[in-house]
Predict the 3D structure of the following.
Amino acid sequence: MEAALKAMSDPTRREILRLVQNEEMPAGAIASNFPVSRPAISQHLAVLKTAGLIDERRSGAKRLYRTRVAGMAELKAFLEMFWDVRLERLKAAVEAENEKEETSDDDEQN
Amino acid sequence: MEAALKAMSDPTRREILRLVQNEEMPAGAIASNFPVSRPAISQHLAVLKTAGLIDERRSGAKRLYRTRVAGMAELKAFLEMFWDVRLERLKAAVEAENEKEETSDDDEQN
DNA sequence: ATCTTCCGTAAGTTGACACTTACGTAAGTT
DNA sequence: AACTTACGTAAGTGTCAACTTACGGAAGAT
């Protein structure tokens, strides 16, 4: 998950993900969309694969890549926890319950 | 946006965001939660602020930080475009509309 | 078997970045 | 004024990561 977020933080890799989001594409075809060298793209693909964001399938001499939907879903779920404040409140409530304290749960505004 | 994603890719900064998600907190108090030095946290705060992910408010000698909800929302919206394939199709449909004038505005399901 | 295509890996370079210690500054305190 | 608190900023260091060129190996084609 850590790896997935880091992988997404690079603009080239994001563009790669965009390219292979809907269709499989061989490494060479992917590379031809970028100003950098083909090995550079190959390394990016390795990063994305390790992060679980793409799948690799071999077809003859070619290697076909495609966005891994499950990986994206996991990343999405992970990020949801960040902008979902209620989870924090839930956690706080559980901890408060440990001390058997009763608190008024008004909205605080500051 | 680029900056926001990059900022989120660091675990320390993610933890900072978590800390100040619900409440304002002075820089020193934030730093006390981490094993690294206070200046290090100060630099992380600067990165988060530049990325638009936190707000800074000065209160006397203290500087209070808090997660910037708008910034998080923008990041979230940006990421939605990645795992929402239908947007790509919508875009393609709009472009097709430039040449054709046939618009059926039903729900598309795929 | 040779050649070409397709692609990953090795090795080296450069720049970014997370961290450190040292210092500066603004606001409260005595 | 002098001191303390609460910070950011400067400067330097080590590590990582994105890139390059060079090379190797596997799969068709001739």
Residues 2-71 of chain A form a domain with the Arc Repressor Mutant, subunit A fold (CATH 1.10.10.10). The beta strands of chain A are 25-26, 54-59, 62-67. Confidence is low (pLDDT under 50) at residues 104-110 of chain A.
